[in-house]
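User: I'm putting together a teaching handout on how sequence relates to shape, and I'd like one worked example. Could you take Prolyl oligopeptidase family serine peptidase from Shewanella subflava, show the sequence you're using, and then write out its predicted structure as tokens right after it?

Assistant: Happy to. First the sequence, then the structure tokens directly below it.
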Amino acid sequence: MSGFAITSPFIRRFAFSALTLALVSGCSATAQAPAQTNSLSNNVSVQVPLAQPPKAKQPLTLNQIMANPDWMGIFAQGAYWSDDSQSVYFKRQAHQAPVADYYRQGVDQISASKLNLDQLHLADQKNAVLNLAGTKKAYLYQGNLFVKDLVDGEINQITKQNVAISGVRFLSNGDLAYWQGNNIFRLHQSSGLIEQIANIQMANEPKSIQDPSSYIAKQQHRLIEYVALQHNNAKAQQQYQQQLAEVDPSFAAKTWYLGDTEVVSDMSLSADGRYALLALTDKNYTWRAEHDIMPNYLGQDGYVDAVPARARVAEDKFPGQRLVLLDLTEHVKKDITIEGLTGFDEDVLADVKQENAAAKGETYESKKSPRLIQLMQDWEWSQSAIQWHPTENKLLVMIEAVDNKDRWIASVNLDKGTLTTEHRLHDDAWVNYNFNQYGWLPNSDSFYFLSEETGYSHLYVKEVGQKARALTQGKFVVDDVTLSPDAKHLVYRANADHPGSYNVYRVEIASGKIDQLTNWFGTLSYVLSPDGQSLLLDASSLIKPNELYIQPIGGKLSQLTDFTSDAFKEYAWQAPKVVAVPSNHGAGEVYARVYLPEGFEAQGADKYPAVIFNHGAGYLQNAHYGFSGYFREFMFHNLLAQQGYVVMDMDFRGSKGYGRDWRTAVYRNMGTPEVEDLKDGVSWMANNANVDSAKVGTYGGSYGGFLTFMALFNEPDLFQAGAALRPVTDWAHYNAPYTSNILNTPDIDPIAYERSSPIEHADGLQKPLLIMTGVLDDNVFFQDSVRLVQRLIELEKPMFETAIYPVEPHGFKQPSSWLDEYRRIYKLFEQELKK
């Protein structure tokens, strides 16, 4: 289940919450590929020898596992390179600490230096723009503009004001442009003059002084000399000001009046400062409905606080965006038309609408109509969907259909205000909200981009107006693309060797030659150094949390940080076995992690109880060889194994890392293919891990809680008990951006919502169920659980219990809440699976 944080009421940008996504990238310096991956073919279930788990020095306790996680170590976050590629910056933040501490560490140093508060504005900044020569760097710090000379290191503060600057770029002639709100300024490097080149007002243009038009007004001017004189003087003064503005070079640019019905949701300036592209959204659109509130029963004043909350997909009617091009030199506005987008008016949901109409005894007649569009909203990138050529007046935009079925990369004709489709990615299910990086290749008419068109995200280059050329191919996923400083290579991350292991590669753009830059078995993320010679890795392995490493290209890997606590490192953690479970439902193989009891026996009369953990987010990968973002669950699974359980967590269909078909298997049918995979997981454990299939429980949070419901409601004999944490019970009540991808919208596709929402299937509950949720959950509302509880009461189901957490959001914060939650889960399994 993904968490969403809307950063603007008008731009639909979203960020996954730390717990619900729980996707940690990482690798390990010494990890080797485990021998047993159990990759089976032909859906044949066989006995596979599994190695004995290590023996713990002392049993784990829930108090230890759910304690303040700082005992594991306070790890580096947000790491990036210094400008000279000789050191690394990062932050560390203790659990629930109000602010973070920032550090700098040289690549050849064994420890980091903490930065003082008065040093932060001088520290090399992560988010910055370079001039064409690469000699100067502009960045924003606390809303003010700074410029650093990369040759001598001198830093100059350009602005010192309380109104924050929102964006900055170097122009092709070396001038600096920046914008505040809807105002764009240009700092001339030769004179230091600050020129306002655009003042954009989302209002109607003020009316000029008009001559009298009615009989009474004309009579007044004719008979009253004073009135006529005042009118004529005002008219003359207005004309004078207009003439002066046209010829006086000291005047700023004319104001743009774009009407009072929209707001600017995105803005970008061309390399020479002549053009500005705007994305406009209806000003009446809001991210929340009027009645959407979240009651906080423990308000600071002793009263119930009504906290605003996001709209539900059933009510969120996003109107799309329209694009406007402003010529700041000629003061000409062009409304960008969408007819150049291939398929812009296709009825892509015709089959869905026909099926839903037929279910109601009606007919549906398909008609073409222009579709709503918006700039592409990738949930992981930091780049803009608007890409200006670095030196020429050429523009690419990445646009998506609001119905989620198409993504276009289009070139913009700046003279005509029209679009030409350079690449169309269509998906009958939904276009992925990841894998959308793209950008120009300098000194050329070509650009690179990612696309899932083959079924897996791969890297392509394309010259404008020509065919695309694939740089990577195969049944693996490519992401996180970086253009090398010399523009000869594209660096990227991929899981080419195994779906659960990631490495960094580079491809020579001209020849297509690929080099593997890291040799790792785990997961990782990377940052390429400014000089292009080294990689900064944020990496982990199965039982080693993320640390920072330096990998010189062609050189030897070295570990930079060591923040994992001795207490954690010295414990004999069991590394889960990553296995490939054969599918009996046409899915091929389903990867899963397996934890085994101490003293495990593959065969024997005494069979083991088992638990299956269901990860959150839906589209998330957890059965990989890196350290799991679900670190508490990792420790809990070690505890369960010590108590005699076999534990499995599966990357059921819909999970990340396995390509487009795996991702879209849940389209219009959430909770069915995933439960089929869980069934195969139970069968695998019965055949390979000596598990009693009549003693298996399941649990999970967010999407995992939803899946727990669907398993217990629709397959009552599969699990003997289940715990659903912060669970979705009715998809019509979840948010629009996530849900409409998979289920369309309730007004168009009620069949999908009724088929996929647990509350519609609650009558099937037969086994003990524990429901736990936070009252302050602004992602999956507390109301979700309230409605399901009332439904179960009315169905007279006696086998469920609930626990509420009054101060907790979606990702719990308080260790006491975590402890209470997992005590209840553990008690449920002990009572129901060890009878």
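A couple of points you could highlight for students: The first helix runs from residue 18 to 21. The two ends are 32 Å apart (CA to CA).
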